[in-house]
Design brief:
The structure is a single chain. The model has no long low-confidence stretch (mean pLDDT 90). The chain is mainly α and 130 residues long. It is built from 5 helices and no strands. The protein has one domain: 3 helical TM bundles of succinate and fumarate reductases, CATH 1.20.1300. Helix 2 crosses helix 4, helix 3 packs across helix 5 and helix 4 packs antiparallel against helix 5. The N and C termini lie far apart (76 Å).
């Protein structure tokens, strides 16, 4: 009789456990975290410039700059995506009943999507109308 108690099935080693998407989720979270590193520094630099800006018109001019508008939109999209991935793990790990888990995951996706869309539309509105 072989002792297979300590051997993981091949599907678990490949990251295809019960959820069938463990590896993809793990990689997406790490890639989004790596993308956030330069975006956070750029965003902090942008905020420091806005604090020292002379007026409202100076701030609007900076947001209207295509480079800064792109940075802000990328920061919003990647930030909400990364946050939603992290919250999904917490919900899946700590909510054990299926119905509340599915409701919370659906609410999470809807809220993250809605807020990301509103953030992007806000930046685009400022960038394109001024």
């Amino acid at each position: 009789m072989k002792n297979t108690r300590f051997r993981a099935p091949l599907k678990n080693v490949k990251g295809l456990g019960a959820a069938k998407a463990g590896t993809g989720h793990f990689i997406n979270q790490r890639v989004s975290a790596m993308a956030l590193i330069p975006l956070v520094f750029l965003f902090m630099y942008f905020l420091l410039r806005m604090v020292t800006a002379g007026s409202y018109d100076d701030i609007v001019a900076q947001v209207s700059n295509p480079f800064w508008a792109t940075v802000l939109i990328a920061f919003i999209l990647v930030g909400f995506y990364h946050g939603a991935l992290g919250m999904q793990v917490i919900i899946e790990d700590y909510i054990h009943e299926e119905m509340p888990k599915m409701l919370l995951l659906t609410a999470l996706r809807l809220a993250a999507g809605f807020l990301a869309i509103m953030g992007v539309l806000s930046v685009l509105f400022i960038a394109l109308t001024h």
